[in-house]
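In the previous chapter we treated chains in isolation. Here, by contrast, the input contains two separate entities that must be folded as one system, with a combined length of 434 residues.
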Amino acid sequence: MLQINISEQDCWLSSDELCECSDISSALLLELVEHSIAIPLQGEVIEQWQFSVENLHQVKKATRIQRDLALDWSGIGLILQLLDERDQLEHEVHRLKQQLSRFKI
Amino acid sequence: MNFKDYYTVLGIEPQADVKAVKAAYKKLAVKYHPDVSKHDDAEEKFKEIGEAYAILSNAKKRAEYDEVRHHHLNRSQHNYAGQAGASAGQHWGQQQSDPQSDQEFADFFNSIFGARHSGFDSRHSGFDPNQQHHGRQSQHDKGQDIEMEFPMFLEETLTDTLKPVSFTLQQRDAHGQVVEHPKSLKVNIPAGVSNGERIRLKGQGGPGQTKADNGDLYLKIRYAPHPLFDVDGRNLTIVVPVSPWEAVLGTKVKLPTLTGHIQLSIPANSQSGQRLRIKGKGLLSKKEQGDLFALLKIVVPAVADEASKPLWTELAEKNTFDPRASWSK
């Protein structure tokens, strides 16, 4: 059976790799970074930028929403931010409920 | 074949104009978009809405569809009359089920839905209802990306852990039939992975078309619920039951951690709900280790035994403590 070790390289994506994996142009990547939809973890210029796998997921999600709902990028940035907040709140509610259930007799 | 009434799907009248079709689509697309919606059947609904929009927003396809719909409604009414007549003792012969007529209807229906695929391709929406594939075939014929939830026990996240991964790839053969290929790997999951984190296994997704790259496999880490510990970021919380006298006098308890046990000192005069921090006994992150919090829960014996009753009574008589003192302020 094939064994795979996760290397540091697997956790980071260059700008080119992100564009290829999400099927977007580098011009669009610049726009997504401008709207904080993609946030480089390091690097000053596009050639040096490094992204996380999570960023790739966000970019894919953003492009799907843009295509299906025809919204502008600033609107999509806001949607993604609100979706993140919703997920965090749901997680928090779940955690507190679980803790409360442990506290009950 | 099940007939789908696209007007019902979009919640509009058959006379609705293109503007109304678009407005209805937008409203429902926002509600059921799989990236936004929390509805259980969002993916299926969104696909249905997309199909309906692709047909009803295109004048030519809509005219063809209206013809099919008209045919279907007439047929349904006919069948209904047949059933009613039969129940009244009349003989309606083969009108209730005519295989030839059904086949003709299916062929006619397919002739329209053949065109449907060019109008709305579910792959382009990024969602394949047949499997948990959330990727898309890129323009360059790259293989399909696959994402799967990957459960892990909290203990497993403290060290590099070799885990088996099994999934099924779906491919079309030369005849266009979907063929399933089971695939198994062993993946060395690095220590410190967090809940919800995605791990990319490059090239382990669906095979690419003619020399194109394979898709990628994404493992989305999901912590399995733990019987003792609750997770908050990198920190863990454990509820520690203590007796009233332990809370008042203080005690030492053997506290479970993810890696074994430690001795925890509970100070005198502790309160229920008080949190004690044990540094560095939480979950590992790529940079540091979180903390473990012991949350004290004072537990009174369910039934006071005969020997203890006089002691509780004496305590009640001699102690002036009023737990509801703040109410009288």
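The interface with chain A takes residues 26, 29-30, 33, 35-36, 46, 50, 124-126, 134-136, 138-139, 145, 162, 164, 184-190, 197-202, 204, 216, 218, 225, 230-232, 237, 239, 295, 297, 299 of chain B (CB under 8 Å). Residues 84-99, 104-109, 115-139 of chain B have pLDDT under 50 and may be disordered. Compare these points with the single-chain example from earlier in the chapter.
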